[in-house]
């Protein structure tokens, strides 16, 4: 679809007040800013830890509640680097496949794929110009 | 063929929605109004999710709702009111209202939604993801429209407003059109990389749904076979509402294989090089369309498209469409 023409945008520019859901302003809190990137890596690492502990259901909950949407935003933010985005989306798809397969594979498969996704996310974060988030603890 | 595929309409609609909400994210990464700032009226953000609405053409209107802290709004039904803002280059002095509709929650593919669950409710994404869908609606005029969703969350009324575009005519083949007679590679074609047939296929992973790659659309139409076509990229989907739609179509193929042909067209022949499969392009990049995905088309034995689903569909709605097409 075509994006709004400037004239229309002017017509649409209403003045309703708005605030972030976390109530904090500034780029650092955006989901593709440093705090958001640290949050997504932290979520992936927490999901990996849950999978390592054999709790695939908890890994799934953490992944979809705290990482999934932010990964889409990260992919969008890094979209100029197709290679980084490809690796990110491929790693994400493997995790989703692990999580939606009727008989979830071994916790090792899931935990490894989550760890790989954390690395791919850090790689994608770098291409957005943000500092590379720290990896999951060993 | 190398094509530059524009960003999904959803992201664009979300950007417009942000403006309607008075919030300032104008960069085109604003694909998530819920996190990027719309928090007026109880922290509710509205995300129009259709790809190809056209004036005078009935189609289900799809609207995603996101609550505070990225929680999905799910279950039950909501009330929508629409207003015509005006042609793209000539907004009306005042929006013209009048059209209203009820929309019911439609879970993304691969999710199970108990229709008896009371809603709407703000839930974690792990519990439910989807959009609210109306029965087919007709927008009389092309241009920009505004939708206002009214919901009651835990006894608190909330509203969210977003803008969307209605085109003069469809850019993607629509209900009633003759399906394009598309030739495309099938399983085992030595000239095509498996990942260009399904993006999930890699050296160690074969094409996961081989039954969707045994015949071509052209052959099915030539033999007057009804068919279902899913155009998707399971690996590289970027829509917020991505679900395992290809797997869902595969499940339906198992159910109806004796009466219908099922085909998956992978969007990308090479994602990194931005190369779109010509067969997919014939459907989603002709007529100035923008290459959004996923799409599902159901086609009857005369070659007419009887149903089409943009962005969000699930097994229940696809099954019902297939049964109608087979009558």
Briefly summarize what is shown.
The complex is a heterodimer of chains A (138) and B (327). Helix content of chain A is 64%, strand content 0%. Chain A has 138 residues and is mainly α.
Report on this model:
The complex is a heterodimer of chains A (138) and B (327). Chain A is mainly alpha-helical. Chain A contains 5 helices and no strands. Chain A has one domain. With 327 residues, chain B is an alpha+beta fold. In chain B, the strands form 4 sheets. In chain B, strands 1-2-7-5-4-8-9 form a 7-stranded antiparallel sheet. In chain B, strands 11-10-14-15 form a 4-stranded mixed sheet, with helices on both faces. A two-stranded antiparallel sheet of chain B has the order 3-6. Chain B starts with 8 loop residues before the first helix and ends with a helix. The N terminus of chain B is likely disordered. At the A-B interface, helix 1, helix 3 and helix 4 of A face helix 1, helix 2 and strand 9 of B.
């Amino acid at each position: 679809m075509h994006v709004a023409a400037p004239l229309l945008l002017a017509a649409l520019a209403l003045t309703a007040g708005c605030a972030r859901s976390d109530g904090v302003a500034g780029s650092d809190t955006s989901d593709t800013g440093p705090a958001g990137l640290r949050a997504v890596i932290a979520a992936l690492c927490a999901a990996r830890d849950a999978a390592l502990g054999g709790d695939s259901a908890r890994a799934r909950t953490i992944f979809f509640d705290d990482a999934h949407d932010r990964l889409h935003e990260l992919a969008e933010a890094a979209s100029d680097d197709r290679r980084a985005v490809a690796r990110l989306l491929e790693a994400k798809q493997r995790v989703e496949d692990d999580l939606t397969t009727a008989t979830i594979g071994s916790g090792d498969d899931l935990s490894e794929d989550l760890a790989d996704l954390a690395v791919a996310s850090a790689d994608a974060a770098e291409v957005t110009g943000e500092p590379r988030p720290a990896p999951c603890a060993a | 063929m190398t094509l530059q595929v524009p960003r999904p309409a959803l992201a664009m609609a979300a950007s417009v929605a942000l403006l309607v909400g008075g919030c300032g994210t104008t960069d085109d990464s604003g694909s998530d109004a819920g996190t990027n700032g719309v928090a007026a009226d109880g922290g509710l953000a509205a995300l129009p999710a259709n790809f190809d609405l056209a004036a005078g053409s009935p189609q289900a209107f799809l609207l995603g709702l996101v609550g505070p802290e990225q929680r999905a709004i799910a279950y039950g039904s909501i009330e929508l009111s629409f207003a015509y803002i005006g042609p793209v280059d000539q907004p009306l002095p005042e929006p013209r209202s009048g059209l209203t509709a009820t929309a019911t929650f439609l879970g993304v593919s691969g999710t199970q939604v108990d229709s008896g669950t009371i809603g709407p409710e703000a839930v974690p994404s792990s519990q439910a993801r989807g959009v609210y869908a109306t029965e087919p609606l007709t927008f009389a005029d092309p241009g920009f429209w505004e939708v206002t969703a009214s919901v009651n969350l835990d006894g608190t009324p909330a509203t969210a407003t977003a803008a969307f575009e209605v085109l003069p005519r469809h850019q993607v083949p629509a209900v009633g059109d003759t399906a394009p007679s598309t030739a495309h590679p099938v399983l085992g074609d030595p000239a095509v990389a498996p990942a260009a047939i399904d993006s999930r296929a890699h050296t160690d992973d074969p094409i996961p749904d081989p039954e969707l790659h045994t015949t071509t659309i052209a052959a099915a139409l030539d033999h007057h076979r009804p068919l279902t076509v899913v155009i998707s990229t399971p690996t590289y989907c970027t829509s917020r509402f991505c679900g395992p739609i290809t797997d869902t179509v595969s499940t339906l193929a198992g159910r109806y294989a004796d009466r219908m042909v099922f085909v998956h067209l992978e969007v990308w022949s090479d994602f990194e090089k931005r190369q779109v499969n010509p067969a997919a392009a014939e459907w989603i990049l002709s007529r100035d369309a923008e290459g959004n995905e996923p799409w599902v088309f159901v086609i009857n034995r005369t070659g007419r498209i009887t149903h089409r689903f943009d962005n969000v569909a699930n097994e229940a709605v696809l099954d019902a469409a297939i049964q109608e097409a087979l009558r």
